[in-house]
Write a structure and sequence with these properties.
Blueprint: H1 3-29, E1 34-37, H2 41-64, H3 76-100, E2 109-111, H4 128-143, H5 147-176, H6 178-186
Antiparallel strand pairs: 1-2
Helix pairs in contact: 1-3, 1-4, 2-5, 3-4, 4-5, 5-6
């Protein structure tokens, strides 16, 4: 098996694992009433960009090899690093969902009996779900040896993050006021101790 093929297989397994983690939370979320929804056009655009860059385009690449002009020789050490990053991303993704529990939502929403979560990965960063997406995009860049597809994941993440994070923090400030402001002062956004 070639290193490039191994990277593609690992990426596919990562996508399957991502969905296995998310699915039960998605099902449970449908049963919890939404009190406030801040879904906007920019929220929808951000989600679409992430889906395109981190799922659709890499899936096309894995299935067809397109765009082959941007391929480069896969290095076993780079693919191994991508696998480690992918596992770390999935662990962070799972822990984030687990800590949020019934508060989780795919969109900018406050749910019935919503509580501010500040344990687990939320003790280090305010948005560990975005941390996991950043790690997933980095893992994709290392696993799929194609410049366009690697950059597509990082670009998709960046669009989602920068269109959403300020709106999300405004919503949390409206919902939790000084409690969230204190939490903001204790934590970084997505990279512990850095940003």
């Amino acid at each position: 098996m070639s290193t490039a093929l191994a990277g593609k297989i690992l990426w596919v397994l990562g996508v399957v694992a991502w969905y296995v983690v998310r699915y039960p939370f998605e099902r449970r979320a449908r049963r919890v009433q939404v009190v406030t929804s801040q879904r906007t056009l920019s929220d929808t655009v951000g989600l679409a960009a992430a889906l395109l860059g981190m799922a659709a385009l890499p899936a096309i690449h894995v299935a067809t090899g397109f765009p082959s002009f941007a391929d480069y020789s896969a290095n076993p050490w780079i693919v191994a690093l991508g696998a480690i990053i992918l596992v770390t991303a999935l662990w962070t993704f799972r822990r984030s969902h687990k800590e949020l529990g019934r508060n989780w939502s795919i969109s900018l929403e406050i749910r019935d009996q919503h509580k501010l979560v500040s344990g687990g990965p939320y003790a280090l960063v305010r948005h560990p779900m975005y941390t996991s997406f950043l790690l997933l995009a980095l893992g994709q860049a290392f696993l799929l040896s194609n410049w366009v597809i690697g950059l597509a994941g990082l670009l998709g993440f960046a669009v989602l993050f920068f269109l959403r994070v300020d709106e999300e923090e405004r919503m949390m400030l409206e919902a939790f006021g000084p409690q969230y402001r204190d939490y903001m002062e204790r934590t970084k956004r997505i990279i512990p101790y850095v940003y």
